[in-house]
Structures are given as structure tokens and as C-alpha cells.
Design goal:
This protein is of the alpha+beta class. It has six helices and nine strands.
């Protein structure tokens, strides 16, 4: 009887694990779909001040579009505050920073106010934009944006993709890469 109960309980667990791995695999495949030089997926999302943002708004600028899992969690706070603390250096590189998560506008407003964030946080509540960028972790019952960043060139193409982000060192890496990308663009006459 105990063995039968164990077998009955093990089947749903195995099915759940199989479903999880299948979903993880499909997300991993989607995340590989974008590549450098490709046109960045368009988006239209509202920020914490109820202002719309779309990719075409940033034509002619370098755009740092960073996805993160959840407002006011340790890694996300570290990353957001690092972007905040380096905002002037980013502006000097002609870059605009936008944060994106599946949190609500109200949650973004509270997070931005609490940490005095000087850039817009976009509410991707349907998780459509994160999915387009391959930055969505869909666990069926809950969705999160993965911690990933995209540098989009002034012409709207993907210039740099960061799939593995360390919140403690990421902004320094972004600044270094922006400087290098701008130098190459200048040499190429863009």
C-alpha cells in the first residue's frame, strides 16, 4: 500500500519536472533567437509615471534596455542602484537606460521613489516584451523577466546582448562596452 501511494505521488512529480524542463528548454531556445546586428524587437510599454515608451523614441541614441526579475529584491536593487549611481557616465556615452520587469506601474513607482532612480522602469505586465527578447522565465503559474540586458544602437539594431548578468559588476561592463561600441561606430562612419 505504501509503495502504491509512493508510485501515485511520484507520477505527478515526474510530470511536473518534465513540464518544467520542457518549458525551460523552450525559453532557452527563444533566448538564442536574437543576435547582434539584428533589428531589436519593437515595444510599447508604460513607465512608472504612466508615460508610454517605444523603441522608435530612442532612435539616434544608444539604449540600454535591462530586464530584471522583481522590484525591491536584493539583486534587482543592487543593479538598479548601480545604474542610478552611474547615470551621468551613461549619459556621457549618449545612452538612455530603461529597466523592464513584469511588475506593475505602481510597483515600479514605489521602487523608483524608494531608491531615487532617475530613469524609467517599464511595466511589461503581460510579459510580451520579455518574451520577444528571449528574457522571459515562464513557470506557468508565475512569470519573471530574466536578468538580461541589451544595448541597442542608434539605428535600432542589437549591438550587445548580456544573457548572464552579475548585478555587482554589470554596469561597469556596460560602460566599457558602450565606449567600445561608440568608438567602432565612429570609425565605421555611423
Amino acid at each position: 500500500m505504501i509503495k502504491s501511494l509512493h508510485t501515485q505521488l511520484a507520477r505527478p512529480v515526474r510530470r511536473g519536472l518534465l513540464l518544467f524542463f520542457l518549458l525551460s528548454s523552450s525559453v532557452a531556445v527563444a533566448s538564442q533567437a536574437l543576435s547582434i546586428g539584428q533589428t531589436a524587437p519593437d515595444f510599447r510599454l508604460m513607465d512608472q509615471h504612466n508615460q508610454p515608451h517605444q523603441l522608435s523614441d530612442y532612435q539616434g541614441k544608444w539604449l540600454v534596455l535591462y530586464f530584471y526579475p522583481k522590484n525591491d529584491t536584493p539583486g534587482c536593487t543592487t543593479e538598479a542602484c548601480s545604474f542610478r549611481d552611474n547615470i551621468n557616465r551613461l549619459i556621457q556615452q549618449d545612452a538612455v537606460v530603461l529597466g523592464v520587469s513584469v511588475d506593475s506601474q505602481a510597483s515600479h513607482a514605489a521602487f523608483a521613489e524608494k531608491h531615487d532612480l532617475p530613469f524609467s522602469l517599464l511595466a511589461d505586465t503581460d510579459a510580451d516584451v520579455a518574451a520577444q527578447y528571449g528574457a522571459l522565465l515562464d513557470l506557468v503559474v508565475v512569470k519573471f523577466a530574466k536578468r538580461q540586458t541589451f544595448i541597442i544602437a542608434p539605428d535600432g539594431t542589437l549591438a550587445k546582448i548580456y544573457r548572464n548578468v552579475d548585478p555587482d559588476t554589470h554596469v561597469k561592463q556596460v560602460l566599457t562596452d558602450l565606449k567600445q561600441l561608440k568608438t567602432v561606430a565612429t570609425l565605421e562612419g555611423d
